[in-house]
């Protein structure tokens, strides 16, 4: 799954367009390397987002099969580090 789709599907960001803008700005890293929107994520990947207040890191636990998941199931797909 593309990193921009994954970020919006697991409710890390509200909309895919926001995720795409973040990737274009160069503030999203996958396993320590700057990522493009088309970068595929796999289980076990570490995603870091450089916010103004400081970085936040996430670990991919599962890849969702649907477009979005319920917020109550977020812990099954992503772990905040």
TrEMBL record:
Listed transmembrane segments: none
Cross-referenced InterPro entries: RqcP, S4_RNA-bd, S4_RNA-bd_sf
One Pfam family of this chain: S4
GO biological process entries: translation
Keyword Isomerase (UniProt): no
GO molecular function, one term: tRNA binding
Keyword annotations from UniProtKB, A to Z: Protein biosynthesis, RNA-binding, rRNA-binding, tRNA-binding
Entry-linked PROSITE patterns: S4
Domain (RNA-binding S4) ranges: 1-60
Protein name as it appears in the record: RNA-binding S4 domain-containing protein
Organism the protein comes from: Sulfurovum riftiae
